[in-house]
Amino acid sequence: MRVPGWRLARGYDPAVTRHLRVRRIRLWLTVVVVGLVLSGVTAFPLEMETRYLLRVLAPAAGYLPGLVGWIGRVHQGLADTGRRYPFIAYGTDWLAFAHLMIAVAFWGPLRDPVRNVWVVQFGMLACVGVVPLALICGPIRGIPFYWTCVDLSFGVFGLLPLGRVPK
Fold this sequence. Notes:
- By secondary structure, this protein is mostly helical.
- 77% of the residues lie in helices and 0% in strands.
- It has helices at 6-9, 14-41, 46-57, 65-84, 90-105, 107-111, 117-140, 145-163.
- Helix 2 packs antiparallel against helix 5, helix 3 packs antiparallel against helix 4 and helix 7 packs antiparallel against helix 8.
- The longest helix is centred in the N-terminal third of the chain and has 28 residues, at 14-41.
- It is elongated, with a radius of gyration of 22 Å.
- 11% of the residues are buried.
- The mean pLDDT is 90.
């Protein structure tokens, strides 16, 4: 038989528990916002990033020839396209902008996670949507399967912090 107030007698304080839960939710939402901002900001200088990545990976070319070859091919494509058709990069500028705007949308749940739970649900839907997009469009665009797995990881790793937010 339970005694009324037994939780309070054992040191359970609902207000403290709720406060800790909200802090934990805000921490996970901050992880999502930081990830979105980083992915947005890094979508602007793609040619420079691939050039630096090639320099870093050069010593591993003997161990990871497929990865280094793919990064080299991507860099060459970005460099050639940037030289001949710079307006094509405007598409990745919009991609970057979209990531930054989605990050802004998560400020609502950071302030009030309960009232703005729909933003979290939207984020989870977007993470799930990564899977068919990567699996369908990757092969159509000639993306190597291991790189498709990298793309899939964004959906999976995005779901992990968002799944921690109670619905």
